[in-house]
Write a structure and sequence with these properties.
Blueprint (H helix, E strand, L loop, with lengths): L9 E3 L67 H15 L16 H32 L1 H4 L4 E4 L6 H7 L5 E6 L14 H21 L1 E3 H11 L2 H10 L2 E11 L5 E3 L5 E10 L6 E7 L4 H6 L2 H7 L5 E4 L12 H10 L2 E4 L14 E7 L14 H9 L20 E7 L1
Parallel strand pairs: 2-3, 2-9, 3-8, 9-10
Antiparallel strand pairs: 1-4, 5-6, 5-7, 7-8, 10-12, 11-12
């Protein structure tokens, strides 16, 4: 099946669908490789109690001009000047206050930024109280054992949705996200004109704006927005809003041997972001790679499967995945997930229930299964409906997730390898 036949998603959603906004909803040819330099001209980049909160602190962080990171190798020490610069960039994008001594201090005095901040503060407060706080609470209970091990999380078809991955797995030492959206660049607000700064703020806000204004997620709008800015600004925004400090960011790539290196032409493009949750001392790592996960895409770039096989016992997370793994053309990534994962958390748009061997996995069901939305009506799973009907131990969900985002209308399945 050709990718052009895969259905496109236009989901009617309210404010809560902000969480779904960054999910990849359509597979097509993978986007082109990123430019070898970021806007800030950095070097080509690269566990404890949950302190994630949807109400970011307003404590300012000082910054100066960035300093280039000299090496791609994993490290535990980071240039504090560069870290402060990157963190301040994220906080500006997220509408969060900076220290008056910041090199970006003048930006936060402009009407454009003040309006940006007001919009995001109001939206985020409602989002956290209605949704994120409940997601975190659920994860603290139902994913406690998994999170206690500081897992590696693999999130295919994610787009830049760091928000859900971090809310559910706040202790993850490494999160690997994959989508078709381009990697993008880090805006350097100290080098931009006022008009350009305002445009960057608008681009970041537009990643969320259509959902809030029109009450539904318009895939074409998202494709346009992310084609212009890539995922980095959105990742930065989400990291700042979840009280994370950004320590470093480097462009990386997966080479033909399935290893991560400094990005060079011909590699699978990606970005590595080292970050530190508020109140903690152990850095975490986020990877985002832009590549096509269809069978055709993996045949073109077999190194990606090699890389996934090198991830130690990942927890795979699937949300609003457009039922892609119900198609034969996505069987390779489905089988890769089943072979490598220690746990699998998904809604019904992930892989079909019949694909999960019952003799190898213990299944736990949450919420209700009322079938897919009308756009995906062909993917109704009678065996999943039967499993929900028979399972007397299934637990309710007090938040919406996935395409059926309404409370008491959503489902999750947690599969644990036996």
């Amino acid at each position: 099946m050709k990718n052009s036949f895969i259905p496109k998603l236009i989901t009617t959603v309210g404010l809560l669908s902000l969480l779904n906004a960054c999910t990849t909803t359509e597979q097509k040819s993978a986007t082109t490789s990123p430019s070898p330099t970021v806007a800030t001209s950095p070097a080509q980049t690269t566990t404890a109690t949950n302190t994630a909160s949807g109400a970011p602190t307003e404590s300012p962080v000082a910054t100066n001009s960035p300093a280039a990171s000299p090496s791609l190798e994993a490290k535990t020490d980071f240039d504090p000047t560069r870290a402060a610069h990157l963190t301040d960039t994220a906080r500006l994008l997220a509408g969060l206050k900076l220290d008056d001594k910041s090199s970006f201090a003048n930006v936060q005095k402009t009407n454009a930024w003040l309006n940006h901040r007001s919009f995001l503060n109001n939206s985020w407060s409602q989002l956290d109280s209605q949704q994120l706080s409940k997601v975190r609470k659920w994860g603290e209970t139902e994913l406690a054992s998994i999170n206690s091990s500081s897992p590696n999380v693999f999130y295919p078809f994610s787009g830049p949705d760091f928000l859900y991955a971090y809310s559910l797995f706040p202790n993850a030492k490494e999160i690997v996200m994959v989508g078709l959206e381009p990697v993008g660049k880090i805006p350097d607000f100290s080098e931009l004109s006022e008009l350009q700064r305002n445009q960057k703020l608008l681009e970041a806000r537009n990643s969320l704006y259509a959902i809030l204004k029109f009450s539904f997620f318009r895939t074409n709008d998202m494709k346009v927005d992310l084609a212009q800015q890539g995922v980095i600004p959105v990742l930065f925004l989400f990291m700042a809003r979840t009280n994370n400090k950004i320590l470093d960011a480097q462009y990386v790539g997966i080479n033909k041997e399935g290893q991560i290196e400094k990005f060079a032409k011909g590699m699978i493009p990606g970005v590595r972001i080292n970050f530190l949750p508020q109140g903690e001392t152990t850095p975490r790592t986020l990877y985002y790679f832009s590549t096509d996960l269809s069978n055709d895409g993996l045949a073109k770039n077999p190194a990606f499967a090699q890389y996934v096989k090198s991830i130690d016992k990942p927890v795979t997370y699937l949300k609003a995945a457009s039922y892609l793994m119900h198609y034969d053309n996505f069987s390779k990534v489905k089988n890769l997930i089943l072979a490598q994962s220690s746990h699998l958390l998904q809604d019904d748009s992930g892989m079909p229930l019949k694909s999960i061997p019952k003799d190898q996995w213990d299944l736990n069901f949450y919420g209700v299964y009322n079938g897919p939305i009308s756009l995906f009506s062909n993917f109704y799973q009678s065996d999943l409906k039967a499993a929900y009907s028979k399972d007397k131990d299934k637990k309710p969900l007090n938040f919406g997730i996935g395409y059926r985002f309404g409370v008491n209308d959503s489902n999750l399945m947690l599969a644990n390898r036996k």
